[in-house]
Every structure is written in C-alpha cells, then in structure tokens.
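Example 3.2
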Amino acid sequence: MYVKTFFNLFRSKSLKTSIDQLPYNYVTPAKVSPIRLVPKHIMRPDYVKSGLIPPASRDVDFLEEKDMNSMRHVCRLARQILNVAASELKVGVTTDYIDEVIHETCISFNAYPSTLLYQEYPKSVCTSVNNVMCHGIPDSRQLQDGDIINVDFTAFYNGFHGDLSETYCIGNVDETGRKLVDVARKCRDEAITKCGPHQLLSEIGNTIHKVASKSGFVVSPSFLGHGIGRAFHCQPSIYHNANEDVEVMKPGMSFTIEPVIVEGEDNPYIDDDQWTVMSKHNYRSAQFEHTVLITDSSVEVLTRDVDEEFN
C-alpha cells in the first residue's frame, strides 16, 4: 500500500510492549543491500529523475479509453511479476532475495519498479512480515516457519503505474494467523463487489469494517487507498474504515483498495529507517490490494489473478 497515507503521517516512535510469549517470530529491520540498478533504456517516473514528488492534486485524473488500455497493460505486468516472486516464498529465503526476483523480473519486461527511489525508498518492493504493518524494506532476514508476509509491488510502464499486494503464509502458520490472512482477503474482495459507477466511495470502508469486525479483527484507519494512473498516488483517497464520504465513483476513476487488517486496536510507528511501519502492540496485520477501474457499466479489477472472480 503505499501509504496509503502518502508516507507522511507517522513520524514519532512509541514504546513497544513485551515480545515474550508471542505466537510468531518478532521482526526487526536487518541489513539492507545496496540499491539495484535499472538499465538506462527503461522509462522512469519523473520523481526518479527530479527527486521530487509533485504536489498532490485535489482533482481526480479521469482516464480516457487509451489511458485505460495502458492501465490494463501495466496492471497485468504487475500481476505477472508479483506471481513470480510469490513462487519463491519459502522458509529460509531472505526478503532481499524476493526484492532481487521482483527487480530482475520487472526490468525483463522493460518496466520500472515504482517504489525504487520514491522519496528515497531503496528497494523495488515492500515486504512486511508479522508485526511490520507496511513499508518493510527487504533485507537479510530469512523467512521463518510460521511467518506471514505482505508483498506490495507497483510497476511503472509506458507512463502508468499498476499497484497490488498479497499476504502469504510461510510454512505452518497458527490458526489465528491463517484466519487473519483469510479475512483480510475477504475484506478487499467484498469491498470490490460494492464498486461501480455512481456508487458511494464510503461503501468500500463500510463494507470492510463490517467484514473485519464480524471476524474479531480491526481495520487500521491509518492507511488509505489512492487514485493511481499517471501518478503513483493521487485522488480519490479511499478510506478503509467506516466513514460517511459522499463522493461517488465515476467512469474513468482508477484507484486501489488495500485495507490493513490487524489482530487488535493499534497505533503504528515508523522505525529508525524512516520507512518500516511497526505495530506498537506487536500485533500482526495482513493486507491485500487490487487496482480497480470504474467503467461506464461496472468495475474492472485490473490486477486480478487468472483464477479470481468478482460478482
């Protein structure tokens, strides 16, 4: 997700509670390898060249038909690349290796990994394990039996971004962890079924809140979905918690739905690396994300996998 708070809301560190008796491996940031290079012929987003993020517009950048086709293409690429990385997830693999796989696969498609050098982020993907809520920087830590990991990837191709993420179980995950992952996926998927032209954006967050609460979990209000297209992050803002947003979905809108579902009420904080968002209370969280497109008659799930169906 990219913060889905636009990376700017968490700036103070809170004291952590005890990590004793946790039913999973507590994660802290480890050694980060040097930045990987992208061949010069691959098109880069403007922020890579300038080092600056353009001011956020208050207006939605509605997509025309040719733009929609470009979004469909980059989102299909992003799905293919994420699936390659997912096939490598297993006990003993480092998250840095997953970044390497993502990076090399991305450039093999002549695409650019959108996170790389976005506000100086040093890697091509975010890998968030267990108590890391989002924006985990891939590093030397090996995945362990019982971990859950969110892999959040965005591709940039032909001037457009496509964004998605999945949470995966590594080895023997306990019952609560597996349930958390299942519910997080259900939250995203049921929210998508509420999307379409002239539907309220608030239906997304209200639906997610109902699904998570019914299962005994909590929706983090700190992370937002966002418009996406030519810009990595733009309008509209997508609230995943219960809300009364009166804005409606309109044809040509493209945005992400990416709720962070947590084991309990929490307050995230940013670690010393200025990116890794940690759980104050050492709760696990899970997240699933799709980029969707509102058309004249329905919603298209641009980053869907081949076996996913949405009614």
